[in-house]
Design goal:
Layout (H helix, E strand, L loop, with lengths): L1 E4 L7 E2 L3 E5 L3 E6 L9 H7 L4 E5 L5 E3 H12 L4 E3 L6 E6 L3 E5 L1 H8 L4 E5 L4 E3 L4 E7 L3 E3 L1 H10 L6 E4 L5 E7 L1 H4 L7 H10 L4 E8 L3 H13 L4 E5 L10 H7 L3 E5 L10 E5 L2 E6 L2 H4 L4 H10 L6 H6 L23
Parallel strand pairs: 15-16, 15-17, 17-20
Antiparallel strand pairs: 1-5, 2-5, 3-4, 6-13, 7-8, 8-12, 9-11, 9-14, 10-12, 18-19, 19-20
Bound molecules: ligand LQZAQKY5 and molybdate ion.
């Protein structure tokens, strides 16, 4: 600490809280320890009788907490992500756009493991709205060594973004509704409207819709026709479980699609089938998607619309956090469901 004339203290860091008392009105810290003195602060400091202050002198190899938090923000925020100015040594990490939030959990662990740094985030692989809060960062001491930043850079080097928001692509969607009871008009299709609504959430449209009976050859033909027509996302509903009339999994397999998984460790949604016909995602959706508020379908959709290729490990990992609690008031995605 160095005693310094207040008028000469612009840009210096106050090493202690400075108390102001206005009888009957206020008693408290006018300036907090760690505050960086600005031009406009000088008059106020003089008014509360501070002709001198104790300034914290940063050594050549040190950084103030504010400056460090801003540098860390710059290093960890990738595409689609920005951060606020510092407030009490902390920055907020914010989404610049709507999209799929990606957090590299391993990198996050390694950065926090360096010590003296607090980097907190929400869970990734979920839809995030523009301006949504993604996390925050502060350094723990008032002053840290610059070499800590070097260590952070070393961890991050060549390993992609720690936090990123990927924009959604608009996809042309083909919908195949299976079920002889719907095809023969014994009952009205109530699956289609559910899917249409979910597609609208990603600014995408169902451009082709077909209702077919529970016949493997007919379902297969419809899928291959959609593929030939160049539809970018093919969804087949119903007929996904174990009844003799459940033909959808067999039909999808018979198209030659690469089956990533038939069955997911998520409830609701256990009977979902995820596959690719060439590059086109082809999903078989079980009946529960029609009536349950959220299912594994809602966990996979953001990733599909962000252009990610789903692999078996993605599906298997969903088991941890894969049980929906069916709350009376649903707060998804602000709950544990799908947070693996
Ligand atoms: N013994 C077992 N039973 C069930 C299993 C199982 O593993 N073993 N799985 C259950 C799960 S999980 C689900 S989810 C359901 C539904 O699976 P499906 O995809 O086979 O559904 P469907 O049999 O085709 O239909 C069920 C129900 O929904 C009506 N439906 C279907 N599509 C439409 C539509 N487009 N519009 C209106 N209504 C529709 C259909 O008429 C049936 O009533 O299976 C569990 N059972
Ligand atoms: O695919 Mo079913 O959830 O487990 O209802």
């Amino acid at each position: 600490m160095r005693r310094i004339k207040t008028q000469e203290a612009i840009g210096m860091v106050i090493g202690h809280d400075v108390t102001e008392i206005v009888p009957g009105e206020f008693k408290g810290a006018a300036f907090r320890k760690g505050h960086v003195i600005k031009k406009e602060d000088i008059e106020k400091l003089l008014r509360i009788g501070k002709e001198h202050i104790y300034a914290m002198e940063l050594q050549e190899d040190e950084l103030h907490e504010d400056e460090a938090a801003l540098i860390i923000g710059e290093l960890v925020c990738g595409d689609g992500v920005c951060f606020s100015d510092t407030n009490e040594g902390k920055i907020n990490i914010i989404a610049k756009q709507k999209g799929l939030l990606k957090i590299d959990k391993e990198l996050l662990y390694e950065i926090n493991n360096l010590g003296d740094i607090c980097l907190a985030t929400i869970h990734g692989n979920r839809v995030i709205e523009k301006d949504g809060l993604l996390g925050g960062c502060r350094v723990i001491p008032l002053v840290i060594k610059k070499k800590k930043i070097v260590e952070i850079k070393k961890v991050l080097k060549g390993r992609g973004s720690l936090i990123e928001v990927k924009p959604f692509n608009e996809l042309t969607v083909g919908l195949i509704i299976t079920g002889s009871e719907v095809y023969k008009e014994r009952i009205k299709d109530t699956f289609g409207p559910v899917i249409e609504k979910k597609m609208r959430g990603f600014h995408s449209k169902i451009v082709k819709k077909t209702i077919v009976p529970d016949e493997m050859e007919i379902i297969k033909k419809a899928i291959l026709e959609y593929k030939r027509e160049g539809l970018e996302f093919i969804i087949v509903t119903g007929g996904m479980s174990v009844d003799p009339d459940d033909k959808t999994p067999g039909a999808i397999k018979s198209t030659g699609a690469d089956i990533i998984s038939y069955g997911t460790p998520v409830l609701p949604g256990a009977m979902l089938l995820m596959s690719y016909l060439g590059d086109t995602p082809v999903l078989g959706l079980p009946g529960c998607v029609m009536f349950a508020h959220n299912t594994v379908f809602d966990l996979l959709l953001p990733r599909i619309f962000a252009g990610e290729k789903i692999v078996k490990r993605d599906i298997i990992s969903l088991g941890y956090g894969g049980q929906c609690l069916k709350c009376n008031v649903c707060n998804f995605p602000n709950c544990h469901f799908g947070k693996c």
